[in-house]
């Protein structure tokens, strides 16, 4: 049986890892200045069927009074007792380039003691940027991904009904545009996965396309690009750069998730010659309590009690499916396939990979999630 396993492992160790592929620059990074912007707002949700904030929420009563006063209605604090209103926070993401009238999604979450936002409607809420300027207005009916019902101490809840989505319910009121071209006439291309070799390959590819001196690899995560053309043709120039394809240098990494038993590794992650011994030792401890009853005594004696005796039995059982295998210089992909043929489960594979890394035979970083 072990001979068959060794033959299977040897056959898998002869596998050839797949070669890297060229990737366009739009998939490797972004230009400095091209980024999304966070928006936040504070508003009210109405139309809730008794699942809104209670009277204990003074913030809700104050916000409702402010809204009614702007609409020409004056009410006192004692006159507000409805549970159909909830105070919420509204967040959204403004694209790097947006025009007036564009619609974006917004997420609404309760900050009071409301039980559910299902069926509610968000009143007009200004969406502010980091500079405290309003960039969008959010308003409309909410879509909650859950529900919560309660009656006579019985409650049924699904997901989180205190968070809802306002799809396309925020309208952009201030146009924004990314500023990519620096005053000195240079662009900065930022790599998503920094690497010196990848940055140099990007610079070489741009120089081959637009001429020597057009690009310089400044660091592992930034490539400087010089642009001396017409600013009106900048969009065309950027599109041509994003269409350039290079072969990125993949960092040797092994990502493991112990909770789900998942292993993800590049096909070319190398492992030096190593021997693996995988076996089980099963230890079982059994405790048995026995009560020793005293014999019969005539009359009653307060100092006579039962005696409880505990007997402990320890069993040690060695696994019958122990496996000892040897791997020549190979890759993580071949190792995992070989261990699968040896019926080693995923969680044990993770322990084996960590032990190989500790032994210095795994030439990659192990990232545990």
Terminal Cα span? 35 Å
Low-confidence stretches: 1-19
- The side-by-side strand order for the widest beta sheet comes to 3-4-5-11-7-6
CA-based shape: flat
Largest β sheet strand count, sense and barrel closure: 6 strands, antiparallel, barrel
Counting structural domains, the number is 4
Look at the helices and sheets and give the structural class.
Answer: alpha+beta
Number of helices: 6
Helical content class: 10-25%
Integer-rounded radius of gyration: 34 Å
Q: Encode the helix/strand succession as letters.
A: HEEEHEEEEEEEEEHEEHEEEEEEEEEHHE
Strand % is 35-45%
- How many strands in all? 24
The mean pLDDT is 78
Structure description:
This protein is of the alpha+beta class. It folds into four domains: 2-18 and 253-280 and 321-368, no CATH class; 37-172, no CATH class; 181-246; 282-318, no CATH class. Helix content is 20%, strand content 38%. It contains six helices and 24 strands. The protein has helices at residues 2-13, 58-70, 196-210, 234-242, 332-341, 346-358, and strands spanning 23-24, 29-31, 37-46, 86-94, 103-110, 121-128, 134-141, 143-144, 147-151, 154-158, 163-172, 186-191, 215-219, 222-226, 245-246, 253-257, 262-265, 270-271, 274-278, 281-292, 307-318, 323-327, 330-331, 365-368. The protein has a six-stranded antiparallel barrel with strand order 3-4-5-11-7-6. A four-stranded antiparallel β-sheet has the order 2-12-14-13. A hairpin with a 2-residue loop joins β9 (147-151) and β10 (154-158). It is flat, with a radius of gyration of 34 Å.
């Amino acid at each position: 049986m072990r001979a068959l396993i060794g033959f299977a492992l040897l056959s898998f160790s002869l596998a050839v890892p797949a070669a890297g592929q060229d990737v366009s620059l739009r998939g490797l990074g972004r230009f400095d200045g091209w980024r999304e912007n966070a928006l936040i707002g504070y508003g009210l949700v109405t139309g809730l069927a008794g699942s809104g904030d209670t009277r204990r929420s003074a913030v809700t009563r104050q916000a409702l009074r402010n809204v009614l006063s702007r609409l020409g209605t004056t009410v006192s604090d004692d006159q507000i007792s409805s549970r159909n209103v909830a105070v919420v926070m509204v967040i959204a993401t403004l694209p790097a380039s947006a025009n007036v009238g564009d619609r974006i999604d917004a997420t609404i979450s309760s900050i009071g003691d409301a039980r559910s936002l299902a069926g509610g409607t968000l009143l007009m809420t200004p969406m502010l940027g980091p500079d405290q300027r309003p960039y969008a207005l959010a308003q409309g009916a909410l879509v909650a991904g859950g529900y919560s019902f309660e009656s006579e101490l019985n409650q049924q809840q699904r997901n989180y009904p205190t968070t809802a989505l306002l799809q396309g319910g925020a309208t952009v009121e201030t146009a924004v545009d990314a500023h990519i071209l620096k005053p000195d006439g240079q662009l900065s291309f930022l790599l998503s996965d920094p690497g010196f070799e990848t940055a140099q390959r990007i610079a070489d590819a741009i120089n081959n396309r637009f001429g020597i001196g057009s690009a310089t690899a400044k660091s592992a995560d930034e490539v400087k690009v010089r642009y001396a053309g017409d600013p009106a043709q900048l969009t065309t120039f950027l599109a041509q750069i994003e269409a350039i394809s290079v072969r990125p240098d993949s960092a040797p990494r092994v990502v493991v998730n112990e909770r789900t038993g998942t292993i993800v590794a590049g096909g070319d992650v190398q492992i030096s010659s190593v021997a693996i011994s995988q076996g089980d030792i099963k230890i079982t401890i059994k405790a048995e309590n026995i009560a020793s009853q005293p014999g019969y005594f005539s009359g009653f004696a307060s100092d006579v009690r039962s005696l409880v005796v505990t007997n402990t039995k320890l069993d040690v059982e060695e696994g019958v499916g122990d496996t000892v295998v040897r791997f020549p210089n190979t890759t993580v992909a071949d190792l995992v396939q070989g261990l699968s043929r040896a019926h080693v489960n995923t969680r044990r594979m993770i322990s084996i990979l960590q032990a190989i890394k500790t032994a210095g035979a795994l030439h990659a970083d192990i990232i545990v999630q």
